[in-house]
Write a structure and sequence with these properties.
By secondary structure, this protein is of the alpha+beta class. Helices cover 26% and strands 23% of the residues. The longest helix is centred in the middle third of the chain and has 28 residues.
Length: 560
């Protein structure tokens, strides 16, 4: 987190004394707070420290995507977060002379159960996430506390914390560095960042109040004379970003009000009171050389910094937290070996690099200052929109990198691997039997591993029960138009909406093993269950096995 000038203090009595925390999280920005919620919801004892005395008032990130909202849903935060976002927006791109090019708004099918793109104000999100920590008595948050030292040992990390006086030493099992681009954790671990910076491209970021914009979408104005981004928010807030010309302002400086007023003149009038934030900055495209060093991990901007043009900086950090926190929980609960934690770097590094590269390309293309290149861009976009594939590629934002895990904690035997393996499972609305309640899939999956049997028999379930797959929620997926009234110990679900996209319709006779972060670990017929168990143990060090007569955890029903 950057140093704020003001903010919101933790509510009185929120911080609870946490004896012997298992995990120290350094940095109470959105990524650190999300990690604290994910671990807290799984019963892990957490100490969260933040060097600033309050949550930040700096409105940096401005968009949550559908995957991030799903992660927050998994920690029980949907009801708290939705009131502070503008759900379901898109981005409209404009070309030379401000002429409209394309409106990108996603596929519209709510693949992950939430709207595709959702503007928000980061100070609001931090305040909400911080306040909601009170739900976890075993999570302690200390503001005004700095990490000043750490020493790694075979079984723990010894850390030194300072609140302005004498340092306090304590031992934790793991440390998560969520402390931003100037990460103390990364510095103490001596991990370099690789990539490049763009010091000559300075952008002015303005957060304004009482704004007249009524559009419910972001606007990327790719006019080479002055590339501009406008993102309307809630309650009259609006974000403006302008590419500055040489001599107008330097990165890190507060721009003069006359410059702000001149740049905003085509869009609105403004007074100093209506200017919530104004800062000039340049961006970076950097990735840490390692995301794991022993018992310490880097997440968010501490791990990777990227240009803002893909809107994926914060969302990538939340993906880091979703990927790592369940793995830490498995190891802390002695259900997996340390090898599982190595898969964090293996799985997250390729995607973080791909998103960073995309952000650079988008900046070069959408925000070019070359008039010939801008005219060529506009011509190519209009030509692509004349074709079905080109139109879907642009309007559904299919240029975003694939999040598929091609190695790590997934089972990909042989050359014929089902395309679902390594991808994030979609979250459709499903009918939960026998009452036919309409729910989101994750409300049935629960918080741990889950095994979905698609159109399988009791004999198939018995055979897989004799194999040591990770224990978790077992679910019958009833395909077609069959009723949900068959007596079973497992919850049964079926597709709620029908049609050719019917949920898992093409997987009849297969099991689908889903990790706690909703990544599909394996797709297999019953006869391959033993092979999947062996491969999963090899790749993750999983220790737990399901007994021949398993005592399944009670189904908790739908979480609200």
């Amino acid at each position: 987190m950057s140093e704020p000038t003001s903010g919101t203090s933790p509510p009185p009595g929120q911080a609870q004394t946490t004896a012997d925390p298992a995990v120290l999280i350094v940095g109470a920005g959105p990524v650190g707070l999300t990690a604290a919620h994910l671990l807290g919801s799984l019963g892990v004892r957490v100490l969260l420290v933040e060097r600033n005395t309050t949550t930040s008032d700096a409105a940096k990130a401005i968009s949550l995507d559908d995957e991030s909202l799903r992660t927050l849903q998994s920690a029980g935060l949907s009801a708290a977060v939705y009131p502070i976002i503008v759900p379901g927006t898109g981005t409209r791109y404009f070309g030379v002379g401000g002429r409209p090019l394309v409106h990108a708004r996603g596929s519209g099918d709510r693949r992950f159960g939430h709207p595709f793109k959702n503007p928000f104000a980061q100070p609001d999100l931090e305040r909400v996430l911080q306040a909601e920590l009170a739900r976890h008595p075993h999570v302690e948050a200390r503001f005004g506390t700095r990490l000043v030292g750490l020493a790694q040992h075979a079984t723990h990390v010894r850390v030194s914390l300072s609140t302005g006086g004498a340092a306090e030493d304590l031992e934790v099992s793991y440390v998560l560095g969520c402390d931003g681009g100037r990460s103390t954790v990364r510095r103490l671990l001596s991990v370099p960042m690789r990539g490049r910076s763009f010091p000559d491209e300075v952008w002015l970021v303005l957060d304004t109040l009482d704004d007249p914009h009524r559009e419910r979408y972001g606007m990327h104005i790719g006019d080479p004379s002055r590339p501009t981004v406008i993102v309307p928010g809630r309650d009259g807030r609006c974000r403006y970003e302008f590419l500055l010309r040489p001599g107008e302002s330097a990165a890190g400086q507060e721009p003069p009000f006359d410059l702000v007023r001149r740049l905003l003149q085509p869009f609105r009038e403004i007074t100093p009171r209506q200017m919530e934030r104004a800062v000039a900055y340049s961006f970076h495209a950097l990735l840490a050389e390692r995301l794991r060093v022993g018992r310490c991990f880097l997440l968010g901007d501490a791990a990777h910094m990227m240009p803002p043009f893909a809107g994926q900086g914060l969302n990538s950090g939340i993906r880091d937290a979703a990927n790592l926190c369940w793995k830490l929980t498995e190891v802390l609960n002695e259900r997996a070996d340390d090898a599982l934690l190595d898969t964090y770097d293996v799985e997250r590094r390729p995607h973080a690099q791909a998103v960073t590269d995309l952000s650079v390309r988008l900046g070069r293309t959408v925000m070019t200052t070359s008039r010939p290149r801008a005219h060529l861009r506009d011509l190519l976009v209009r030509a692509a929109l004349l074709t079905g594939p080109g139109r879907r590629y642009l309007t559904e934002m299919r240029y975003r990198p694939d999040t598929r895990a091609r190695s790590g904690a997934v089972v990909r035997p042989g050359k014929r691997v089902h395309p679902l393996v390594g991808t994030v499972l979609s979250q459709p609305r499903v009918l939960l039997g026998p009452s036919y309640r309409l729910v989101l899939l994750d409300d049935v999956l629960g918080t741990g591993w889950s095994l979905l049997g698609v159109g399988l028999t009791e004999a198939d379930w018995t055979s897989v029960g004799e194999v040591g797959l990770p224990p978790g929620t077992e679910i019958d997926v009833v395909i077609g138009d069959l009723a949900l009234d068959r007596a079973t110990e497992r919850p049964a679900i079926t597709d709620a909406d029908g049609g050719p996209r019917s949920f898992l319709q093409d997987l009849a006779g297969h099991f689908v093993l889903v990790r706690p972060d909703r990544v599909v670990a394996a797709v297999f017929p019953p006869v391959q269950a033993g092979h999947v168990e062996v491969e999963l143990r090899r790749s993750t060090g999983a220790r737990a096995s399901r007994p021949a007569t398993p005592e399944r955890p009670p189904f908790q029903g739908v979480r609200r």
